[in-house]
Each structure stands twice: as C-alpha cells, then as structure tokens.
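FW: tagging you since you asked about this chain on Friday. Here's the raw sequence from the shared folder, copied in full. Didn't touch anything.
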Amino acid sequence: MIKMRYLTAGFVTSAILAYTLFQSDLYAKSNEDLNITSRLQAIAKFTKVVGTVEKYYVDPLNIEEIIDKAIAGLLSNLDAHSSFLDKTHFKELKIQTEGEFGGLGITVGIRDGALTVIAPIEGTPADKAGLKAGDIILKIDNKSTIDMTLDEAVSLMRGKPGTKITLTIVRKGEPKPLKVEIVRDIIKIDSVYSKHIINEDILYLRVVSFDKKVVSEIKKYIKENEKNTKGIILDLRNNPGGLLDQAVGLVDLFVDKGVIVSQKGRIESENRVYKAKRAGTYKNIPLVVLVNGGSASASEIVSGSLQDHKRAIVVGEKTFGKGSVQVILPIDKEEAIKLTIARYYLPSGRTIQALGVTPDITVHPGELKIHEDEFALKEAELKQHLKNELEKLENKEEKSQNKEEKAKDENKNGLITEKELNKDAQLKEAADILKALIIIKSDKG
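HL: got it, structure written out here
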C-alpha cells in the first residue's frame, strides 16, 4: 500500500482495477447490493482525475500529496466532524488526549458552515480574554476561516505557551467584528468543583468538562455534603462535552432505571444502549440543571436524559446541538481518519444533533437589578441619616476592609453570596426553582 502511493497514476489505475476485478466474486457473494460495474467506473473516474491533477496542476504534486488531499476533501465533505488526520494532526490529537497542551482553552465546532465557539473553558486564556459561546471566528491571525476544516482551525490555534494569537470574531449584537488578542498557555482543566449557596441547603456542582474523574468527583462532593444538602444545582453551562461513559455515569447517579442514552449507526455492532443501574442512585434529591448555547455533546446527553426522565428541571438557554459519535480509525502508525459512525438518541427517541436540548424554563444571562422599597426608605430616613453620621466618626476604611475580608472568607469556604447570586440571573432562577422543589418535597414527605 505504501509503495503504491509513489507509483504513477496510470499504474495505480491498473492496479486498482485489477484488484477490484479479483475481488468481484467476493462482492457478489456478500449480502450487500453492490453494482460492480458502477464501482469500477467510479474508481476509474477517480484515478483519471488524480492523473490529470498530477500532470497539469500549476504546482508539482506527487501522488502521495494528491491522495492525501483527496482523502481530506472526502472526509471534510461528509460532515463537520469527520476529518483526515495526517502525521501532524494525529500527533496533536495524541497530545490533546494526554490532557495538557499549549493552547487557548476553547472548544469550537462548525455551525451553519461557520467556525463557532462552543464554549471557552473556565479559567483558561480564552475565557479570560472574554470569548463567549456563539462567537463566530472569522480569522485566525490573518487567515480566513471560511472553508477551513475544524482540525485545521484547531491546529492553528494551538501553539507554544506564551505566544500570542489574534482572533477576529463576529458576535451577536456587535455592529462590527472584534479583534481579540490571546496569549497561549498550558491548558490544565479542573473539571469539577462545588459550592454551597449561602444560607441555603443547596449544593452547587459545576462541571467544566467531562474528563475521566467527573463521576468520582461528583460522588465525593455529594457524600461530603449529604447531611446538609436538600437540593442540587448541576451547572453544565459552557461545558463542551468529553467522555461518554462519564456522562452516562453522571445521569446514573440520579436515575435508577431505564435508558440513559443510545447510539445508532449503519453498522449494527456499533449500536449501543446505555441503561441506568439501581445501586447508588440519589433518586429523591431535587435537581436543577443549568445549560446554555455552550453546552454540547456529553452535557446535552446529561441534561436531555434527566429531562426525559423528568428527574430534573432544565434551566437556561438552548444547547449547541452536537450529538454525533466519532471514532479514530488508524490508517497506519502515523495517520488516521476521524469518522462519524453514529448519532446519540435520548430516552424519548429524540436526537440531539443540530437540534440541541430546549430548557424547561428559558432564562437569558444577565444581572438582576434589586429595587429598594422607596416607602421603607422614607420611614427610615432619619435613622439612616444618624447611622451615616456615626459612620463618619468611625474608621470607614477599616469597616470596608472587614467587609472585603468577610466576602473573601465566604468565597474560600465555598459559599455563593447573595450578591454573587444576583449577578447571575440564570443561577438565581435555578436556586429559586430548587427552593420550590424542596418545599414541595418536604410537604409530600
């Protein structure tokens, strides 16, 4: 096979035709309805094009380069997630799966033909630079992303830590494109963390991405706080996905029976049905899930499955809509193809792909404006005036410092303050809904 890459196009044609004829008896005996004549004609057409390109194209290309470009073109035209991984891209993929690499901390996808930010990963350079889910990347440095493959874009954005990159983005609501300069860094992700909402028995669990530790970390946090927890908020906003088994395991913590998710493709052996197990299930604890346009793949499986089982109230905005299964199929030790082989289906039978998960309650991001009771202020006007005069006599700076230190202590203790809650309308709504669910449960119990 390797030698054939360096032979002339004419000889390649003859070799392929001969091989196909030799295999024709096998094809005829198979259960597939194959038209051998049309296969031969199609292969002949392909090799004729290869020969023509090799002979007439303005820049000299050897047969290996032409075949590689043909493979890349084939896969990129299948869907946005299938691709050819040459030596460089295959090596980069291996580096990425090790969990530490130089990059921006951004997950991207192709939506409606445009390179789109699925989500910036929390705490990474992309997040700190202000990139948002839904941003369209128009240029990477000076290179246009129009007709650029997903893998080409990812390759350009990765690089040596400490180096700069400029992204030109189109953002909804902005009159013209924005230029964002980002400094690459080593991307290390803490996939799970937890907090309590102050003065409430609500456990806040934030899942940033689905790596191999998600289920064990969630279990640990729930066990540590089980006595003081009456309800859970699971925050999957801007979570671009990750490992399927972790998504299944997370749903399994809250559902005790039935289908969690299934995958279906053309090849029957690749079809899977993942079901819940009764053991170790937190079946009765009230649950609210937060999602947005940056929630994709594994996040959509979790939120959609919990929604279908009526196990959780889903709050926020419609998710990204990435519900297809890709596998890496090596060609040799240095090259591979990434191929879509199936799609995910939720327990109700609906698909995630291109549709996403619609929340039960839609809440747009923003900050809540707190309005004081004007009548109460008038009644307390004199008292407040006296308090203000008293504060002038005291050390205001010391008081202010004490307040700041108190807020920092609350944050260190894993508490979400009322002030922080009011800055996040989606989280505030989730907390209010969860309080109602807790009250309903206590009334029933």
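FW: The longest helix spans residues 9-29.
HL: agreed, and Residues 1-22, 24-28, 406-412 have pLDDT under 50 and may be disordered.
FW: great, closing this out.
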